[in-house]
Amino acid sequence: MDSKVETISRLAQWRIDNFGPATYKRSDPFKIGIWNWNLSVEKNRYMYIRLFPEPSRVSKEQPPVARFILRVTTTGTNRKPYISPIHERLLRTSDDFVWPIDTTFQGRFIIDVEFLDLKICPLNGGEASPIWPSDGVMQSLATQSTLRCLSRMLDEAIHADVIINTADGTVRSHKAILSASSPVFHSMFLHNLKEKESSTIHIEDMSTESCTALLSYLYGTIKQEDFWKHRLALLGAANKYDIADLKDACEESLLEDINTSNVLERLQEAWLYQLNKLKKGCLMYLFDFGKIYDIRDEIDNFFRHAERELMLEMFQEVLTVWKPA
């Protein structure tokens, strides 16, 4: 359908197959963040593209401040992109943002909107609050008083009974917390392994900072910014120590900010740790949304080092996307 907008992560893409004699088109609503959005395109001597939130109670009471880039690309072999500057606007109505392009397109073309940031503008003044990353997810399963106790146990090593040797230092923890969080740690202390005898664990593939972030997650006290900073290290630890909920949280987080500079790295991580949702998201971003055209140099180097099975899956995705109509 000509009015449908596809979305993934923070990217929205509107494919217009045929403008025809019409001078105005408006997309169906699409959801990014907490708002439903619309795109419209108007053809005169110039082409005018507008981005605006759909009128609703949410957009009225919590109007968005959006930081974004627009791109218009013609289809076919001669893909000529028109790329806007980075815009940051308070958007309330369709009159708040208009991007004029000194051209008109014939035939099919694609409009991309990449949201770099979204904030809620307070009606009573003050600083806008970002919606990404969302706070509170890591602490939703425990009360604040329990979390304060666990935080003290970790920070002050209260009755700590195990030492963890990292790549650049040591931290102290509790066998009970580790065992309850991970079947791998539980097995270490249950059986007559060297970890049980010495009360020492070697996690030398993590820095002290990353290992502290891992422990903060297990104790329920991790801060959102620390989780984002150490996502890849936490993903590796979650896979190694079979911490399923942390692995899922890392996958969901890595899906949230796919872009051209990290999509190949994310695809490699998805393949390494068997993250099917992340892998599918990366392949959709590259092929369904056509972003592979933007990273031609990087993709050549990627193919030289990629696993054969991963390359086969990427080739199959190409066949799926580019099959004849």
From TrEMBL:
Pathway: Protein modification; protein ubiquitination
Pfam families from the UniProt entry: BTB
Recorded coiled-coil stretches: none
BTB domain segment(s): 160-219
PROSITE patterns cross-referenced by the UniProt entry: BTB (PS50097)
Highest taxon, organism lineage: Eukaryota
PANTHER family according to UniProt: OS08G0103600 PROTEIN, OS08G0495500 PROTEIN-RELATED
Protein name: BTB domain-containing protein
Lineage: Eukaryota, Viridiplantae, Streptophyta, Embryophyta, Tracheophyta
